[in-house]
Amino acid sequence: MGKVTGFLEIKYEKWPTRPVLERIQDWGEVYVPYPEIELRRQGARCMDCGIPFCHQGCPLGNIIPDWNDLVYRGEWKDAIDRLHATNNFPEFTGRLCPAPCEGSCVLGISDDPVTIKAVEVAIIDKAFDQNWVHSQPPEKRTGKQVAVVGSGPAGLATAEQLNRAGHLVTVLERNDRIGGLLRYGIPEFKMEKRVLDRRVSLMAEDGVTFRTNANVGVDLSVDELREGFDAIVLAGGACQPRDLPVPGRDLKGIHFAMDYLTLQNRSCEGDTIPEDALISAEGRNVVIIGGGDTGADCLGTAHRQGAATVHQLEVLPQPPLTRAPENPWPQWPNVFRTSPAHEEGGERLFAVSTQRFTGDSSGRVNALEAVKVEILRADGRVEFQPIPDSEFTLATDLVLFAMGFVGPEKPGMLADLGVKLTDRGNVWRDENWMTSAPGVFTCGDMQRGQSLIVWAIAEGRSAARGVDAYLLGSSSLPAPVP
């Protein structure tokens, strides 16, 4: 390491953000770059730790100590080469990944971990600014045609890897723009869509074909895919949202988070939203059910739309401020976290279970009735037991379900292909990433279930190797996930 004693001499500095009162007035990204001198100091905190557990914490196997050291030394060109060696889209992961690498950082045993995400973003953004990232089409083509269904991070990673191997890749997206949840699920304040557009444009220059409004199993049959392509990759995600079947669920003003976020992202893209389709928090008392990242995305969106009040409910108890004894390093630290959206306002309620909704004379929700709960664990099962006399009511006229997803959508493409499913309802695959249908592969949330962007990219890279070997008999593409 360039500065062996850096972790002893330099303290952790939080990634800087725009002031709250400024950022809630627009949709620009919340985080701002570190001053370069401070970023290099933060890179110097990376220890000569012997066994870099950040490698195993990162599903992509990013070579984190190397590029931390290169940033400290100011060798940015080498840093982006090292970063791109394992990660197709560091501009996505650096902004959106919850950083399991930082949770595994050896320095985190006794101090704040290294600011890995911020360094990652700085490397790739500087590389684009310096024109070090440019079109690199393959030198020769194999003539093999591959269809990738879904243009989220798993589909894009698969497509880029297969294109690099010389195959002719077509990405099919059912929406009107490329990007999947990167486009319509992630708010602008977390990642401006110019970042996505920049990468998609590069992939198109490299030879990847993108087709939008191509809903396989609806307006494009699986038979057409089989006839037109030598291999198919299913990377459509786990888009079936978790519902909450309680009394009053059918009242107006109760929506899935992704419907809400998609409309705002469309508005940010310049689309006109019809009045009867609009879901807005302006002037409303908002309740978000779900305490995870999607809930925080709804929270930040509601702030920017001008909500009167916002409450975010989570059925689990509030995590501890530091690791519990049963959650030792280098496991992912289950600790209390505050996102930039939480810094902007709203109230978080933990250990709460929604019992019912009530409505007004127009049929719109006007209140949520809930109860405090405690967790009971027995025989490996977890139950949420209501606490007597803990009932309460929240006034609300907009409720957003942000409780995650229960798996891929089954009607249409999956049903028509007849692929085998796992016990959890995800698409089954073998060790080569092939489904039960010959020549049809899968990766990302569609086979894994709801997960992280870094897992999606890692699985896309691994699935690409499986496809490449199927088409050519062997493959030299890297595969981070076995």
Summarize the structure in words.
The protein is an alpha/beta fold. Strands 3-2-1-4-15 form a 5-stranded parallel beta sheet, with helices on both faces. It has 19 helices and 15 strands. The chain has 3 domains: 6-129, Orthogonal Bundle (Fumarate Reductase Iron-sulfur Protein, Chain B, domain 2), CATH 1.10.1060.10; 145-239 and 406-472, 3-Layer(bba) Sandwich (FAD/NAD(P)-binding domain), CATH 3.50.50; 243-403, 3-Layer(bba) Sandwich (FAD/NAD(P)-binding domain). The model has no long low-confidence stretch (mean pLDDT 96). It has helices at residues 6-9, 20-23, 36-43, 54-57, 64-73, 76-84, 90-96, 100-103, 116-129, 153-164, 181-184, 193-206, 222-228, 257-268, 293-305, 340-343, 413-417, 445-448, 453-472, and strands spanning 145-149, 168-172, 209-211, 231-234, 240-241, 254-256, 285-289, 309-314, 347-350, 352-359, 365-378, 381-395, 398-401, 405-407, 440-442. The chain starts with 5 loop residues before the first helix and ends in a 10-residue tail after the last helix. The chain is globular, with a radius of gyration of 23 Å. Helix 3 (36-43) crosses helix 5 (64-73), helix 7 (90-96) packs antiparallel against helix 9 and helix 14 (257-268) packs across helix 15.
